[in-house]
Structure prediction request, 552 residues.
Amino acid sequence: MANPAILTVDDDPAVSRAVARDVRRRYGDRYRVVRAASGAEALDALREIRLRGEQVAVLLADYRMPAMNGIEFLEAAMDLFPRARRVLLTAYADTNAAIDAINVVDLDHYLLKPWHPPEEKLYPVLDTLLDAWQATPDPAITEMRVVGHRWSAPSFAVRDFLARNLVPFRWLLADEPEGGQLLTAAGVTASDVPLVVTPDGKSLVMPSEADLAAQIGLSTTPAADFYDLVVVGGGPAGLGAAVYGASEGLRTMLVERRATGGQAGQSSRIENYLGFPDGVSGSQLTERARRQALKFGTELLSARDVVGLEAAGSAKVLRFADGTSIAAHTVVLATGVAYRRLAAPGLGELTGQGVFYGSATTEAPSCAGADVYVVGGANSAGQAAVHFSRYAGRVHMLIRGGDLRRSMSQYLIEQIQGIDNIEVHPFTEVVGGSGDDHLERLELRDTRDGRTRTVDTSWLFIFIGAEPRTEWLDGAVRRDPRGFVLTGPDLMAGGGRPPGWALPRDPYHLEASVPGVFAAGDVRAESVKRVASAVGEGAMAVSLVHRYLAAQ
Ligand SMILES: Cc1cc2nc3c(=O)[nH]c(=O)nc-3n(C[C@H](O)[C@H](O)[C@H](O)COP(=O)(O)OP(=O)(O)OC[C@H]3O[C@@H](n4cnc5c(N)ncnc54)[C@H](O)[C@@H]3O)c2cc1C
Prediction:
């Protein structure tokens, strides 16, 4: 991080040089002296410093400058660095203007030119101002910053993407001073959000996920066009397949559309994964797996959506949403499942604006003190409720059944029972949501007598089971009526091999209806929906990949 700046602005080159020289002589070891020849130039420099998250301690501005005088400059600079101390350089004749400026720009000092000797006239003033600034400096910021609107779905999508990819960032509201300062510094307005400012000061206005991925150092372009193994989906199953594939010498590519970790990465605490007796956060577990996959040489492609699969001879071609493609000898489909949407009037329009699917870890800190509603009675909803209880005033779990026993693990039920601010509402469903620009109230129905009631809340988190979203595999591999990929013995249910199957053997256990294409984890029909089983299937799929390749 660079030293804090002392900025001097004067249109007279000789004076400007003299000020900078005197300041640098005494403070150059601790402060960076930035020199500008006009108000506009100085503001540009300040914007850049602001975007980089660096600090400005003192602004020294000459009063008489063409185009923008010193007072006008200091006034504009206050929007960017309100805590920087402000000094106006004036000639004797302008003393009155300087006195007026004390009110206009909250001037800390006016300095009469010439200030020689600086030991007497300049340094004592600056010493005092720098001491005062150091007591309450503008914070230096080294992480990414996101400026947006509280209830904007695109702003949420950016935060969610960064959070899922474990990128630390500061979230700033566009209508609060710091957010406004960053918008000004980037030269945009509150309607251009989300704005992302990188630690090195680059601003991205309304970035796509691919822009963000590239910015945080994730690769979005394949290095080759042919691989031994392409794994689609970076959840536990895909990461498992990538670790085993790459470590066993296969040229392995892992493609992930959002963030590695999948559903497991969203789990605030996984208590039942082997080897972690004290539990482990899903993001920690899957981040380690990601690093392990990379260590073994997996190529990881991020923010890329696979939208098509075709067999071309013995090769398999995977098409991306942008029309490009890659090919491989073998493919492991590990695309998991995504939350089912809750079809109640009003909720669709408010998704991302108070209505969320999953997202417990991203949004929990924003719910401080509020009433939060969680829909669902399975482990994912239970974990979310426990996580929210640390932030929210009260967490309301809405379940359609009479209690949690049929759908939730006993350890979680006990945990929930021990938390005072979680309340379970049995026989309750959400039948509507409304609000102006964000969720403000929910309509709830008692499933026993049909009576409805309205509650005020801005937070609804939905965990109501999941579906595989495999429409893109239509016509490519066989799926069950719910969209889960059929493999091995399930393909032989009718007594014969699947139509089009040309090999003189049955499909291997995790093999889909196209030889060399395998499915692992939640996306596979009849799979157990657990982290451990997904990882295990990923590993097992790779051993079948070897068997397939050996027979080619
Ligand atoms: C909140 C929560 C808590 C949970 N807690 C536990 C627990 O405590 N213990 C436990 O055992 N299980 C738990 N589970 C279940 C467990 O997380 C899942 O069973 C497991 O993550 C399944 O892994 P997967 O790799 O098959 O799929 P997923 O985890 O669903 O990963 C699939 C990945 O594929 C990506 N993808 C999908 N389609 C495409 C495409 N077309 N192109 C590119 N990428 C694509 C997705 O973005 C996703 O990252 C929990 C689930 C949730 C949601």
Remarks:
- The mean pLDDT is 94.
- The chain is about 30% helix and 20% strand.
